[in-house]
## 1
Amino acid sequence: MAINTDQVLVSHSEIEQMLERLSSELNRDYGDEPLIVVGILTGAFIFTADLVRRLEMPVIVDFMQVSSYVGEFSTGELKIKKDMSYDIKGMNVLIVEDIVDTGRTLALLKDLLLKRQPKSLKICTAFDKPSRRVIDLVPDYNGITVPDEFIVGYGLDLDGKYRDFDDIRIVRKE
Ligand code: IMP
Ligand code: MG
């Protein structure tokens, strides 16, 4: 089966406009308050890098790598492959994600980080696929809502590939 990634869904200039809008919302909402930004690896590495360079408050950048799986008797469990390095107690924390799909990963991650008693905890995602949601999770900041298609580029991958595209493309299997 061949993979076709010819169809552009979101252009690079639309991504730049999205970054401008999100960063002005964040700069407005947080003002001069220090912020810990937690990028979710690996998909959010480009988005995190682009976003933090547009933020005006003092920022600490950290990363976590997590995955969620649905167990036989549970609605979902979180596996932490890499935890963050900073203590978030009493801090404003912003989770930065590439895409929200079923919502499982972020719902579980939010529960985990809330136990560490941050001052505030919000979610900023580059892309949102609300049609696939199985858990009631609404990101506080959303870049671009996308249809129910598998997309790659701007950090998002298929088997580790295509993260380097500077636009978003739809994957077609032919
Ligand atoms: P969920 O919201 O827990 O279902 O999982 C979200 C994660 O699934 C994201 O962080 C991505 O890693 C991955 N994912 C979901 N949809 C896509 C897609 O269209 N392209 C690439 N990765 C995706
Ligand atoms: Mg991911």
## 2
Amino acid sequence: MRKLGVLTSGGDAPGMNAAIRAVVRYGIYHNINVVGIRNGFEGLVEGDHLEMNLSSVADIIHRGGTILGSARSKEFMEEDGFQKALRNIKYLGIEGMVVIGGNGSFKGAMKLEKAGVSTVCIPGTIDNDLPYTRYTLGFFTALTTVLESVEKIRDTSSSHNRSNVIEVMGRDCGDIALYAGLAGGAEMVIIPEIEYNIDEVSDKIMQGRTRGKKHSIIILAEGAGDAKEISEQIEKKTGIITRYSILGYTQRGGAPAAYDRLIGSQMGAYAVKLLSENQRNKAVGINGGGIFEMNLDEAIAVEKKFDERTYELTKILSI
Ligand code: F6P
């Protein structure tokens, strides 16, 4: 392996920069040149790139976002755009690609792999919706950000004896809501994996009130219901003033948590190691045993197992 390319694709996630830094520095240390592709697969189609050196990745490990830029590229998924991307890879002399992103990005990477480009993926998304790996890059930072907001909103909830519905991101995956619910002591979480029952939510709030609770925090995952509608229903059923907040893009940015910097660095180096050993079609992940790899097509096919235990525990602990 003489030259590899690296790109970040899909929604940006804290820790992506740590992974880029590791790819570049680990590569250069092993005499591999690294080309950075700007704006995800769009940059591959357009040939938008920069030759990376040690200084290109200086002072970025602690920064949110991605220095390479990111995009969701339609053109790359179409035949003309894809052929342009392949021509650019050849022209640039790229012998392997590291793709950092979420499930859409993994599918793009699979297209490259099938066309003969050696590709290794790193899971980078706040959603934690790639079930082959225990955690994705950015998930812990997003959780920390959510918890900071939950705590602020709880102060106001207690001061005014209100209920508050807080909508968090996650696309079709309830992990941010579920883990923020457990770690933030929420009264209830509403997630896409479990159909909610408004009577159950309202009863839970009333139970808390009966034993003197001054606040009620309901964490709602996007994709599980409408924040405005749910808060109106709660207010109607409980008679308690209920407000809602949608945290939105505040969850995507910000300095990466220590964990995301660590696994970003480890996964970046591991991806380069795999490519340098002529391994291909791989997804890097983390589990109880540390960093591991599995075949990309198998990783994409792993189905989500709902974390029933965490859900039940969140309910039990919020009685
Ligand atoms: O995948 C990350 C994510 O932030 C999701 O949680 C959310 O549904 C989506 O991206 C928003 O996408 P966009 O950046 O295209 O608005």
